[in-house]
Amino acid sequence: MSQSLAHLNALPAEAARSEFLKCCGAQRWAQEMTAARPFAGLDELLTTADRVWRSMSEADWQEAFRAHPKIGEKKAATSQAEQAERWSAQEQAGVTRASIKTISELAQRNREYEERFGFIFIVCATGKSSEEMLAIINRRIQNDPETELRAAAQEQHQITRLRLEKLLDRDPGPSS
Q: Which residues are catalytic?
């Protein structure tokens, strides 16, 4: 068991819930992950995260979506921990190198997407260029609402798993 996981397991419930909310903004998900501790290892943590995510409702999914800034923006609709904001910025690094034209197109497609589906465009942006994200939104905006909600939930799930791994890789110093 890594020192970081031992630290997460030992945190008081409210502090652990705050740590989990950095990974996924759904309150119920964070609460259930907190209650499922202690975890024997990363595999158990990720398996539990998968199981809990699959049990979430559409409302839970949308709550998690609101904890993300729109692609190309810095602030989410709901408040985020500073660490979650840094992770979002790192995940969207591909946008910082985009042309003004691409950034403008992404912003326009983000507005159209949100009008069509009622939630922001969610994509696991890690390692993707702005052009790739634009191609993805152009493809996904054609989905029917139910298909797109499930696609967005799958992307959120990928983001959550990556952030859990980041959470455990960090120095376990004081909880923020």
A: 68
175 falls within a domain: no
Residue 171 confidence class, pLDDT cut points 50, 70, 90:
very low
Q: Distances from the Cα of 67 to the Cαs of 61, 72, 100, in angstroms?
A: 10, 15, 26
Distance of CA 67 to the CA centre of its chain: 7
Is 176 domain-assigned?
A: no
Provide the CATH number for the domain around residue 57.
Answer: 1.10.3330.10
pLDDT digits (tens, 9 = 90+) for 5-48: 999 999 999 999 999 999 999 999 999 999 999 999 999 999 99
User: pTM score, two decimals?
Assistant: 0.81
Total domains present in the chain: 1
81 located within any domain: yes
pLDDT reported for residue 126: 86
Domain enclosing residue 102, as ranges: 3-169
How far does CA 128 lie from the centroid of its chain? 15
pLDDT of residue 73: 60
Would you say residue 131 lies in a domain? yes
* Whether the bond into 38 is cis, omega within 30 of 0: yes
